[in-house]
Amino acid sequence: MLKLVPIAITALLALPLVAQETSAGISIPVTMSAGAMYTERLQLAHPTATPSTAGLQLMLYPTIQLDSHWFAYAAIDARLAPYLYYDAYNPEHDLYANVIQAYVGYTIRTPKSTLVFKAGQLASAFGAFPLRYDDAQNALLDQPLSYIQTLTLRDAQLPCGVKDLLAQPYGSVSNFCGGAAGRARGLTPVTLYGVRGVEADFSGHRFDGRLQFTNSSPSHPLSLTDSGQFLQWTAGAGYTIHQGFRVGVSGFRGPYLNAALSSLLPAGTTLRDFPANAFGIDAQWARGRWSLSGEWQRFQYDSPNFRVSPSVISIYGEAKAIITPRLFLAARAGWLQPGRAVDKTGASTDQFAPSMASYEFAAGSWINRYQLLKGSYEWLNIGNRPGTRFNVLGVQLVTTFHALDRAFHQ
């Protein structure tokens, strides 16, 4: 079974180099999954929809090793939704295709350390979860809240104050102090779908580190053709206290508001004066049959109409127990806690949006070395609402294989 390892080393191992005894080759690992779920989330916007659905996901990881230093890597996601638990708020079947990562890299190795440079579309260097989006690496079916849940904040609209914030429901946000018209989804604290930029990863002895410069915030990723791009930084580091036990930190900072809001800002200010910033702590421990992991994260979104800007704290803990070589059990508990906000009129709130808690329990069985069958039940509580409308029962069959694996001898 897969165990948690330092994130920088994980990034290197995610590159399935075709043969260590050769310096060039091409490999295309594939993860193909079929899933089904039962949940009343499907009926929230469409009351007549059936509470059951099914979907598919195909993950491709093409890798080209040019020589002992240069390589190219991509992670491509094709999905027939609803497939993921957060897809279930829309019962319509839609086909999505996303390039999660696509970059060129250069590796420098010494007997005691490894240094990797990357340029292109990259997984965010913030947090410990972004490299575990693959169903074969995620012991459960859902993802931690900070990586999937939208907030009651938008990049393209300005809230007037506390009253405006408190009036927003999750999933559909419309503020009243300027910006794009209508309602739209809010910000997700950390994207799992990649940011454009450059990165350096280092691992040596017990230390691992990463520094990333991108064209936009992990909370609001932009393409290279979008307006309002600003240089941003994300950094992280970890230390392995002893084999199987690592602790890490990470953070990011940079503008997140849409360029269209520039004319609405106070005189003498620019979008750079209102950044999104985050700080996180993570830990992983594994020994024998057991593995544990967790993260604590705090996000703040500076906004021109606030003295104390909205902030969010996210926490989750995850445990996995290997019962037999083929069977495992896993659980995750997570919380999303919106914080205090004070606007320029003096109005304040201790919590600008409802709190959220999720609890997921899963079991998985390796049918063979290539196929994993897993199922889970998730309880999702939003603002202490009673009932089971947000809960999900799901099952996935995950198949992994290499579509191509060829070495070129030089």
Spell out the CATH superfamily.
Porin
**What form results from the Cα inertia axes?**
globular
Provide the CATH top-level class: Mainly Beta
Helix content: under 10%
Low-confidence stretches: 1-21
Q: Let me know the number of strands.
A: 20
Beta-strand residue percentage: over 45%
In short:
With 410 residues, the chain is mainly beta. The protein has 2 helices and 20 strands.
Q: What brief labels describe this structure?
A:
410 residues, mainly beta, three-stranded antiparallel β-sheet, disordered N terminus, 20 strands, Porin, 17-stranded antiparallel β-sheet, globular, 2 helices, 3% helix
Task: Explain what this protein looks like in three dimensions.
- The protein has 410 residues and is mainly β.
- The protein has a single domain (7-407), classed as Porin, CATH 2.40.160.10.
- Helices cover 3% and strands 49% of the residues.
- The protein has helices at residues 7-13, 162-166; strands at 25-38, 52-60, 63-65, 70-81, 94-110, 113-122, 195-204, 207-214, 232-242, 245-255, 275-287, 290-301, 306-308, 311-322, 327-338, 341-343, 348-349, 356-366, 371-382, 392-407.
- It has a 17-stranded antiparallel β-sheet that branches. Strands 13-16-17 form a 3-stranded antiparallel β-sheet, with no helix packed on it.
- Strand 5 (94-110) and strand 6 (113-122) form a beta hairpin.
- The longest helix is centred in the N-terminal third of the chain and has 7 residues, at 7-13.
- It is globular, with a radius of gyration of 22 Å.
- Mean pLDDT is 92; it is low at 1-21.
